[in-house]
Amino acid sequence: MIDYLKGKLVFKDPTYVVIDVNGIGYHVKISLSTYSQIKDEEQIRLLTHLHIKEDSHTLYGFKEEIEKKLFLHLISISGVGPNTALMILSSLSVDELQTSIVQEDHKTIQRVKGVGAKTAQRIVLELKDKIQKETMLNGTAAPAGFLHKNNEIKEEATQALITLGFSKAVAEKNIDAILKKSSPEISLEELIKASLRST
């Protein structure tokens, strides 16, 4: 099991990074929360989880221990795969997810793309006691992310949504709707999060 990777940040996207560790480039899927915390670090250390299937080995990376722990809790639930878990952690902050689970707020979890009513209820049912028992620190108040001109941010956000499984048309429609309502200073992370919630 690969517990963490430490190396040079070669490439960064809202959905994944490439880390060079002694000449080997590791492709690591990340959440928007982790993306916003990485900033422009040259040397990076990410906690990781290696998910093994018959046809693929996929690395998932996390800046914070609490996010990795929540990811592992989520994938332990029947019907929640690693990509769905990452989608949940991209749509909701650690604090929002914990609060939704503890307060049995199924609807907030259900707003995440790919999460139905039964899955949201199962997440609450199976994780409520675990979350309450664990001593949680202050969570991960993610920095605002990177500020871009609207056209640049729109392109990056569209690409991120396509990577997360949206069609280009739906991604562009969601992003346009959010940009009309938001301030010009909206960050890439905020734009993608708002677009995920608007579906």
List the helices and strands and how they pair.
Elements: E1 4-12, E2 16-21, E3 24-30, H1 32-38, E4 43-53, E5 56-62, H2 65-75, H3 82-91, H4 94-102, H5 106-110, H6 117-133, H7 150-163, H8 168-181, H9 188-197
Parallel strand pairs: 3-5
Antiparallel strand pairs: 1-2, 1-4, 2-3, 4-5
Helix content: 40-55%
Would you identify the regions where 5 or more consecutive residues have pLDDT less than 50? 135-148
Indicate the mean pLDDT.
85
Instruction: Tell me the fraction of residues in β-strands, as a range.
Output: 15-25%
Structural class: alpha+beta
SSE ordering: EEEHEEHHHHHHHH
Based on DSSP secondary structure assignment, what is the total number of beta strands? 5
Report the major sheet: 5 strands, mixed, barrel
How would you describe the overall organization of this protein?
It is a single chain. The chain has helices at residues 32-38, 65-75, 82-91, 94-102, 106-110, 117-133, 150-163, 168-181, 188-197; strands spanning 4-12, 16-21, 24-30, 43-53, 56-62. Helix 4 crosses helix 6 (117-133) and helix 7 (150-163) packs across helix 9 (188-197). It has a 5-stranded mixed β-barrel with strand order 1-2-3-5-4. Strand 4 and strand 5 form a beta hairpin. Residues 135-148 have low confidence and may be disordered. It has 199 residues and is α+β, with helices and mostly antiparallel strands. It is globular. It has 9 helices and 5 strands.
